[in-house]
Amino acid sequence: MTQPTTIRRVPGSRPRLPEPLWTALTLAATGVPVLPLRAGKVPFGNCHRCADNACGGRPNMKSAGPCRCPGVCHAWAAATTDPAVLASPPWTAAWRRAVSVGYHPGGAGLTVVDLDDAAAVAWARATLPATRVVETTRGEHWIYRGAMGSSNAVRPGVDIKSTMAYARYLGPGTGTMTALPDAVRALAVKKPSTVRPAPQAVAMPAGVGDGECPHRTPAYLDRGIAMAEQRITEARAAVHATVYRTFLAVLSTHGRCGCLTDAHVARLFTAAQAKGETPRHCTDAWTNARTRLGL
Question: What value does the mean pLDDT take over residues 207-216?
Fold first, then answer.
């Protein structure tokens, strides 16, 4: 995979484009899927048709490319190398407001080890194979050839950004890009003792869950949770939407009778995080499902 390159300008031939878009088009030409980032280094919000994943998400949330709608939706999944999409009116409006360019490392066959501070940088220099390095505001991005699952906080000050994630483009960097080492892949392998899903407490409103629960039989409840876990695990597309809809189905059946426990919710969150969802995504999906059902 061709690595991000510097921008070459021909005097007098540059089109009248926003600076971030010019950079994005140059990166896209090298095979790097890009997207605009607004203030705060975050993607633009979904359009009204895609808000709260009402559209069901992208057809294949594991690959880069444009959303079905013409807007810049679904964060990293909007990243594309298509210059016609990047320069289309809905996108150019976003590029005019953008403050930087983001890219989907996994879509370019890359992995970014995001080192957030000096201590993390020192650890990487003593532990990981040398590769291309890009300086950031507080630390460094180490970029390797090869994609893997993304994972945050794999150790203090260290995040891994590859598939289903975006990174900010901060220049071509220095050094020779090398193959993704096993040492980086091993960072994302969570040991059982360190897997700590962050479910919200299932606190039912006053008056809900009183009395005998008709569902509180081990076989019925365990079968329902197991089916929900399986549905999430087998999702091959629209993972965000699948997680939300599964949470909604579980809550619609068990959310009012009081049979769900923190252990049940933790099982669902663990299944979702194994598919790449963050604890925050899980919590948001759970909260949105409860809100929709009036719980």
Answer: 49
